[in-house]
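Weekly puzzle thread! Below is a chain. First person to post its structure in token form gets bragging rights.
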Amino acid sequence: MGNLLELTNVTHAFPYAKGMLPAFEDVSFSLAEGEFAAIVGPSGCGKSTLMRVIHGLIRPTAGVVTYKGREVVGVNTELAMVFQSFALLPWLTVVQNVELGMEPRGVPPKERRRRAVFYLDKVGLDGFEEAYPRELSGGMKQRVGLARALALEPVILLMDEPFSSLDALTAASLREEVIDLWKDREIPVNTLIMVTHIIEEAVELADRILIFNGHPGRLVEDRPVDLPRPRNRRDSHFADFVDRVFEKIA
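Winning reply:
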């Protein structure tokens, strides 16, 4: 299986009063179609910035990001992002929020509505199409954000700490739904990259864990998760794996 996404010696730095402040340095890894990769590391090691570089929202200071063998220059429209903060417009209904991302990509109105309704049903929000964000719980708002990203029908879905603002039970439910969606042949996306600061979450969901450390961030290990699915957080092998990842970060 060939590489879908590849980063080669990628660095990104932000300008500040004394020069340039690197968020992360010299990051190299590749991702094949169908993989689920999680990025973990301490706060401030550049995880979210890396996601924006992968998406093409910002250009790296050095190095190259390639997608399907071509360098990424500008926003890659075959990727979509789920944000931590929901990012819903309060004056639009649920279905209008989902449709919003498709409009700049030239999706016709009837197709926008069809996709919005279809993906809202996929994330368990059938019947809430005409509700407003203020009428939704945090978990429901994040489901809208997930449906909005899925409606773009991306090849790669990026998720930047998608469960961190949710209570434990809601987060657990959504994690199960993400795994089910990943396996669902009715949706086109089957490759995911997730940023999380919760190691247990990464071990539960991902095929591989990209472990970052330091300020600026560096990729210190690319570790396959060799635990069978479904994964049980109470299993001793699960706990041992979490401990080994933690040792690399601490």
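Puzzle host: Confirmed. Bonus trivia for everyone else. The mean pLDDT is 93.
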